[in-house]
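Quick log. Single chain, no ligands specified.
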Amino acid sequence: MEYKQFGKTGERVSAVGMGTYYDPLWIIGATLGFKRKADLKIEAIRAGIEEGMNLIDTAEIYRSEPLVAKAIKGIKRDELFIATKVWSNHLRKEKLVKALNNSLKRLELNYVDLYQIHFPNSRVPISETMGAMEELVDQGKIRYIGVSNFTLEQMVEAISSLKKYELASTQMSYSLADRRIERDILPYCKKEGIAVLAYYPLAHGKLSKTDKLIELSKKYNKTPAQISLNWLLSRENVFPIPRASNPQHVRENAASTGWTLSEEDLKLLDATFPP
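-> predicted structure:
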């Protein structure tokens, strides 16, 4: 596994991480107490850790924090980079603090490495939320502050609201099939040293069926998914977080590191899947 510096934090995290959003039916079922294939998902996260993946992303709304807790049990805490997210209806100070404490209980942790605002909420001043975030850093309950699904304008406003700490990351949909963030967010993050967590990096499996990826997978003796992830890894400060639900797929994702697509093939993919 390759490791890269996570933005300006100085932290070295796995170039490919693990996401733990499964699907709406999982969330509904887990909320009602039915956790479909939970053991397989825990096994998948453990498989990723065994492969050197130390970046694990979850969220309060995913209902997967307890799975992460079981998967990381027995692993040295400082060897992991655990990220979770607060839902948009918990961005008032009191609610945010309560939401984090609940996440920590479900994760069975004393702190998380990265706490992210899952979606912005126009009804809550971002200054209030960021002020509460900074207090949580001071208390040692979170180490770094992140956002998710923010426009560039919203992200800049969040940054301007921070008084003591810097914004560590943003999390956005990013793949060969969805390159919208290249218009403004990605260049801004590159300039400011902000890490980008890329969710849906495999576009729900759609990319694996495209002729160009199939062609390149034969050339490199890699799977289309590995080609897709390696393309993302060529982007500075981008950390794809494909879903960890199957141990075999997680090991496949881990093997997208340790090699590189040629400049010629990177340009070919850029042309085949234009922004």
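The chain is about 40% helix and 15% strand.
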